[in-house]
Fold XK-related protein.
Amino acid sequence: MLASCKDISISNASKKFPKMTTQDTTDQIEYIRTEAESTKSWANEEIQELNSSLKICCVPLPRRLFLFVKYIAPTLILLVSFVADIGSGIAVAVTHYKDGHIWWFTLTVIFILSPAVMFIAHAILKTATNPEVNLKKKLLWIVLYLCTGGGLLLWPLWGYVKKLIYAIRAITDEENSTIHLEKFHSIGAVNNSMQEMLKAFLQSAPQLLLQLYILISSPPDSQDTFTIAAEVVSILFSLNSLTIVVVHFEVNSKHHPSRSPTTNEQNPEINDLCCVAIEYLWWICSITSRVLALAFFASVFKWWVFVLCAIHAATISTCLIFHHPSYTIQNFVIAIFMGFVYIFCFVEYKVDFGRLGRVVGLYILYYSFTFIQNICMVVSAFCLSSHEASHRVPILVLHFVCFFFAIMLMLFYLGLLRPFYLYLLKKTRPNLTVQ
């Protein structure tokens, strides 16, 4: 009887996870393998978490407090940062319109709506190229996408609210906690990180750079106090939202070939509150130094900043395209988008970081390349800007302080709090086959 039960379970598992053919692409193999293994490791982890007191920053916490810190608090932070980013953008757009700056108002509104426009274009293109849908249904879906386009801007709110509801139920309903947490993880599981990255770098990043440029380049008496306050608030919320999305992507993304799932005994990597806090400080300092250099340079060389950013993005996109194992239109578009992301920061996305030397080498290469760019931009803008401007010296000092503080935090984070690089060094010796 035990043998028959075992056969039944094996057959059910084979139905749930069918065997893959050799025709599957590398991306599909990686995604399905990662999804299955992460689901298994998640289930084991949740059983352990729900039945014992767990530690955050080496401090043991009871079950409810641990679930609050791990699930409710991050969801609330994402929800509040999303609303604050859009709300501050709308507020600063209104102030630009009232002040008669129609050009700044137009650009601000474009950056607010750009994620929704991109999602609509992607949905229409996917529907139009689907051979299984007839022409009449295609037209109906396209009209529906166009009519509900504005709702796509606020659609992530519904996902955050649902996650928050399931997290609260997991704490209050102890008997069905695992079920509620499973629903929590199932919401937006597919491509959720990339959608957040698209929203952040199509809206928050350009909005941050635009408002900082306006604040630096505008004469002191050309804007009233309320407009300056609105710009500062928008800058802070955009910077916070962008940093949170980058940290969330780096911690939870499934697109890190160098961080393939392993058992807890093999993998010393941890993602507790201390690691996330240090990583947040690292990225917010790194992004701050970068946007300060770009905005300061743009205030003096308005059009040359676009040339510099285009060369930077094209160089990195070309490297990503030639180093990707498969060549498809989707991979090409993603490489172009990631080239734009690397204008502001360095993240790992489906790049072969298999060996420690290459990982460290890429970090050193990127930050050296970026630091040389920043020095050239800041020094040239400092020398050629008006000597009467009061912001010259503070921007110069703040840029270098933020950059070197970010480097120190990165080394501390990667060297001590996330020692998985040492694990990679051991793993790659010998006879490594990078998956």
Remarks:
- The mean pLDDT is 73.
- Residues 82 and 300 are 32 Å apart (CA to CA).
